Amino acid sequence: MTQTLYLMRHGETMFNQEHRVQGWVDSPLTEKGIRQAQIAGRYFTDNDITLGSAYCSTAERASDTLELVTDLPYHREKGLREWYFGRFEAQPEFLNPPLPYNDFFATYGGETQTQVTKRLSDTILHLMQHDHHRNILMVSHGGAIACFKRAWDQYAEHQYNGHFGNCSIMIFDFAEDKFSLKGAYIPDFTELDKEFSNR
Known about the structure:
By secondary structure, this protein is α/β, with parallel strands linked by helices. The chain has one domain: Rossmann fold (3-Layer(aba) Sandwich). The protein contains six helices and six strands; from the N terminus they run βααβαβαβαββα. It has helices at 14-17, 31-46, 60-69, 113-129, 142-151, 190-197, and strands at 3-9, 53-57, 75-77, 135-140, 169-175, 178-185. A six-stranded mixed sheet has the order 3-2-4-1-5-6, sandwiched between helices. The mean pLDDT is 96. One of its GO terms (cellular component) is cytoplasm. It comes from Schleiferilactobacillus perolens DSM 12744. It holds the Pfam family His_Phos_1. Substrate binds at residues 9-16, 61.
């Protein structure tokens, strides 16, 4: 059986709004982030997708997002956490080096890109191998999801290299222990953005 993994980024947080580095540190969803999750959650109902199980990272921004998308019981998994940025945690984003980060953050007590990629791939592969539902939701983080996607690009049916904003969803087929990106759902928050920019 081919399963489908819906790998979703959390909604906007206070640190996202303040343009601060947010890895293992946490901050709450903003009002806008809550609304983003509610809008993105309609993707599943609008497309008659019945989720069988759900997982998220241990960050509250991820579990709060998941709870706004589905009322399924869920498991929190440390392996789905964001990249750990060491001393750069909670610092202004302008201090980040240009992409790709590679081993930069390891010098400051954080993870290398290889470590993040292996952690995400090992965790998600294990969860999918032991979960027999057809449609599975996992809520994680932007940097971590980007690392996971790159790890499986060789099997992708669909190429997506655009901006992966809050509450965007990567959609993977999973069969024979391989993940194949088959699409991405990027919610349209145009009206929401206008509403909050006018406040």
